[in-house]
Amino acid sequence: MAREVTQEAFAAAWADGPLTVDVREAEEYATGHIPGARLMPLRTVPARLGELPTDRPVYVICASGNRSKTAADWMTSQGIDAYSVAGGTGAWARGGRPVAAGMHAA
């Protein structure tokens, strides 16, 4: 089972530029995502596992935390050091943290 991190713990880690994977659909991502988050819709995670590092943590986020738990659980079972971000992008934005729009991660 994947570990879950709080918004506060993720915000502290995010400041150091960790790999953040957004498992929402492209339309959701385009309307607002965490700056630097890589889009990898949940349904594509198994096929794209090779894109993920095994030597550092991967933070997984979605809208509210449900899809990210599913993805992080699967990633963990495959040897990825994955953490689901509690509350998702919704809680991130409600907390007044930065949100980017469009299809680019930067």
TrEMBL record:
Protein name: Rhodanese domain-containing protein
A Pfam family per the record: Rhodanese
Entry-linked PROSITE patterns: RHODANESE_3 (PS50206)
Species, as recorded: Streptomyces davaonensis (strain DSM 101723 / JCM 4913 / KCC S-0913 / 768)
Occurrences of domain Rhodanese (ranges): 21-101
Record Gene3D superfamilies: Rhodanese-like domain
